[in-house]
């Protein structure tokens, strides 16, 4: 009997691979750290989370120290960053009293890890940004947007085609490109993407989050700090990749067993927010951001009376965060606010 051909859009395929309740990558394992498939900045050094905590307090002060502020961690991973940030907040009692912490987490598996790690603290887990009823709000998106499913379109012989995955044979899925009406798609999302492009990478889910966050920032004030790996070119590119055991692997071959991510086009993200009447305060590298916040001075202070071995470990970890050849330039940082705010700390 001949199998019925099944084609699904790339973003649906990625969503299944990462978030399917039965076999989704994020739903069944802890992918972080040396024993996992990849490592994130908060897992490399506590210095990273301390700098984000200091930046958060500075931004709260810019907002004139509101008596109530929401801090929302978008996709908290294994909870390391927010744990270390709360530990830093202990030295800033006025902010600590003002701050209510939320975690938006889709993975029930990771939520269990977070709840265990953060059991000492008062935190509310939410399924939707719309659960936050009043503000102001500070949203933190550390490696959040890169894990959201993307659509891909390619201009081939002057015709736009959308990438699908043929899952007729589930053990051997293959990519297929199908003709599409790009103008119709642009009309639907309200943004022109195709001008002077040969490749389009676009995440409808990112657009959904951006709209929800924009509404909160316009109505209730605050900001969104994005830290992610990405690029600043006007030209989009195919940046899709899968990672397993700290190495790049075939996306289709390791379906459900590898992390699938893409590089954020920061100029496009800024364009989306501008379309929604918000502004980017600046885009810089992770290296510049952390150095501007004083990470080198902090490393010096904490390593002063330590043994050579412990001191070397601190600086080895610091190098991974800020070295131009490592995460320093690959990761970018952007702050989004309403048009009334001017805040350049870190930038």
Would you give an account of this structure?
The chain has helices spanning about 10-20, 25-30, 40-45, 45-60, 80-90, 95-100, 110-115, 180-190, 205-220, 265-275, 285-290, 295-305, 310-320, 325-330; strands at about 5-10, 70-75, 100-105, 125, 135-140, 150-155, 160-165, 175-180, 200, 220-230, 240-245, 245-250, 260, 265, 280-285, 330-335. It has about 350 residues and is α/β, with parallel strands linked by helices. The chain has a single domain (about 5-285), classed as Rossmann fold. α12 runs antiparallel to α13 (about 310-320).
Report the major sheet.
8 strands, mixed
What count of structural domains?
Answer: 1
Summed up, the helix count is 14
Q: How large, in whole angstroms, is the Cα Rg?
A: 21 Å
- Global structural class: alpha/beta
Principal-axis shape equals globular
CATH class: Alpha Beta
Instruction: Specify the CATH architecture.
Output: 3-Layer(aba) Sandwich
| Helix and strand element order | EHHHHEHHEHEEEEEHEHEEEEEHEHHHHE
Low-confidence stretches: none
Mean pLDDT across all amino acids: 90
Distance between the termini: 62 Å
Number of strands: 16
β content, as a range? 15-25%
* Fraction of residues in helix: 25-40%
Q: Under CATH, the topology is which?
A: Rossmann fold
């Amino acid at each position: 009997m001949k199998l019925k051909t099944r084609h699904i859009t790339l973003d649906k395929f990625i969503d299944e691979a990462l978030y399917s309740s039965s076999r989704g990558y994020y739903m069944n394992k802890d992918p972080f750290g040396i024993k996992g498939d990849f490592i994130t900045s908060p897992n490399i050094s506590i210095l990273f989370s301390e700098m984000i905590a200091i930046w958060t307090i500075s931004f709260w002060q810019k907002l004139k120290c509101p008596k109530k502020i929401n801090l929302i961690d978008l996709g908290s991973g294994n909870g390391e960053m927010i744990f270390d940030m709360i530990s830093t907040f202990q030295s800033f009692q006025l902010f600590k009293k003002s701050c209510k912490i939320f975690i938006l987490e889709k993975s029930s598996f990771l939520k269990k890890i977070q709840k265990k790690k953060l059991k000492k603290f008062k935190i509310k887990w939410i399924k939707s940004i719309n659960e936050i009823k009043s503000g102001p709000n500070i949203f933190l998106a550390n490696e959040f947007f890169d894990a959201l499913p993307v659509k891909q379109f390619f201009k081939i012989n002057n015709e736009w085609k959308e990438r699908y995955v043929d899952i007729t044979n589930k053990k051997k899925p293959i990519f297929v490109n199908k003709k599409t009406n790009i103008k119709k798609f642009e009309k639907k999302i309200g943004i022109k993407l195709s001008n002077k492009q040969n490749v389009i990478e676009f995440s409808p889910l990112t657009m959904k989050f951006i709209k929800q966050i924009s509404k909160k920032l316009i109505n209730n004030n605050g900001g969104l700090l994005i830290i992610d790996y990405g690029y600043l070119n006007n030209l989009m590119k195919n940046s899709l990749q899968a990672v397993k055991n700290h190495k790049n692997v075939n996306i289709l071959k390791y379906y459900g067993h590898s992390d699938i991510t893409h590089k954020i086009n920061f100029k496009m993200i800024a364009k989306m927010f501008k379309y929604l009447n918000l502004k980017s305060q600046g885009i810089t590298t992770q290296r510049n951001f952390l150095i501007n916040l004083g990470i080198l001075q902090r490393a010096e202070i904490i390593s002063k009376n330590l043994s050579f071995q412990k001191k070397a470990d601190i600086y080895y970890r610091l190098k991974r965060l800020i070295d131009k050849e490592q995460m320093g330039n690959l990761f970018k940082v952007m702050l989004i606010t309403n048009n009334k705010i001017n805040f350049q700390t870190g930038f």
